[in-house]
Design a protein that fits this description.
The chain has 214 residues and is α/β, with parallel strands linked by helices. 15% of the residues lie in helices and 27% in strands. 46% of the residues are buried.
């Protein structure tokens, strides 16, 4: 289910088949990456919204999808989104999912009022949920997806324990941890997430860029 997925670093993913190339929060995509048909941005933080990466990946016809505050900073074919809405852009149907912190000590990192998001995207006959930066907010219990990409780094987002709890709640066919091993959190926490998420299957896909944490 992840044969079309490349994980670069942090939360940066690419989905690519013969017809379509989609990036989510691109960062660290290399010197000559395939140009994007669609670029999704989850929120405004530097490790998710990098204008230099967008400029490198975009071509004539590239479509951009972003929360409203990020969309205001972009030019071109941009679709601003709000949480809990359905959209279709470039032939891809998707739902924008709320992404925010619920822990008291983290409320300033990703406030609910910002309207930042994750996405459930229909790609190649399957659904893929990229959670963005979030805690286990109540709305996420309603997510239904084949594959769930969940942040596990802690501090700024839910940690591996909370992410495993979310995986068990929404029961995807496959869960994949992201947002760890770079800015924060040891790569070992991927294995901790895998064990804690059981019986949900977990795939620890390797990033293209080397982990920076120990």
């Amino acid at each position: 289910m992840v044969e079309h997925i490349t994980w670069f670093r942090q939360a940066a993913l690419r989905w690519r088949d013969e017809q379509l190339t989609v990036y989510i929060d691109p960062w660290g995509t290399g010197d000559d990456p395939p140009p994007a048909d669609l670029i999704f941005i989850t929120h405004a933080h530097f490790d998710h919204f990098r204008p230099d990466e967008i400029d490198k990946l975009r071509r004539d016809g590239t479509k951009l999808v972003a929360p409203r505050d990020v969309a205001d900073e972009l030019t071109g074919d941009v679709t601003p989104v709000s949480p809990s809405e359905s959209y279709e852009v470039g032939g891809v149907r998707f739902i924008s999912v709320p992404a925010y912190n619920t822990r008291e000590e983290a409320l300033g990192f990703h406030p609910r009022r910002n309207g930042w998001v994750g996405y459930v995207m229909e790609l190649g006959g399957r659904s893929y949920y990229h959670a963005g930066d979030t805690d286990h907010a109540p709305e996420l219990d309603d997510v239904r997806t084949d594959v769930a990409f969940l942040p596990i780094g802690g501090h700024f987002t839910m940690d591996w324990r909370a992410a495993a709890g979310l995986a068990r709640t929404i029961e995807p066919a496959l869960a994949v941890p992201i947002h760890y091993g770079f800015v924060i959190c040891s790569p070992i926490d991927g294995m901790r997430f895998r064990d804690a998420a059981a019986p949900v299957p977990v795939d620890l896909i390797a990033p293209v860029d080397d982990f920076e944490q120990e």
